Give the backbone structure.
Amino acid sequence: MMCTTCGCGGGEVKIEGHDHHDDHHEDNGHHHHGDEPQPAHVHAPGMDGRRMVRIEQDILAKNQRHADANRRYLAERGIFALNLVSSPGSGKTTLLVRTVEALQHRLPVAVIEGDQQTGRDAERIRTTGVAALQINTGKGCHLDAHMVGHALEQLQPVAGGVLFIENVGNLVCPAAFDLGEAHKVVVLSVTEGEDKPLKYPDMFHAADLMLINKVDLLPYLEFDVDVCIDYARRINPKLAVLQVSATRGDGMAAWLEWIEDGAEQARSARERALRERKTALEQELAALQSRLGEAH
């Protein structure tokens, strides 16, 4: 399968304990919110441009249906889901390990790991005692909502908890694919250069939070944090920003508080929905009883 963003191949996807073919065109009757992603324009040799656009729209529309179903699944269980995205080498996995170590005694935590090959990251997460499931995308450059839906079925995250989805290291393709998450969180390390938001605007536009990671290295680098934040907010004025160091602990308290606030909102929304559903059922029952009484 070709990625609509960069044209890379898909192929066999391996989810621990379950293998399936990565096919964005496949519905299988398994339909898993957010703004409709815009097609990313690429050029395939020998393919008419209009046909390419139709294929892009078809892929993204089907992904959106799976994402909507994932979001319903998560909302019904009050699970706060975050899609962590970054370039390779940003320190995303180390940051995630430190995060789940700190959170697991406060909240139920589960992790879906995405990589092209190996299960190393999921193994690192499991050493903390947290449940983790690995998805290997093969030649694919990102996770999609269909893969995540299958992973949710297998992982069965605990209601009222937090689900972290660590996407494949890539600042291009994951921007276009909603997985059903509450937020995309883009991790940018100070070793990468402050102009990354200008180079990869789609990702920073799609994200709700930017974590500037490895700030413990700032004394040794020519990285201007204020310039980086300015560039990012030119792309996305509403982007929240936190500065963190996974190794030294800088900013971790604020990051954990942001997660816990989101998890509390997800639980409250679920409780509200359950109360509303209960009230609606009680009203339906009362109306039915009234009609039965009138009939007699």
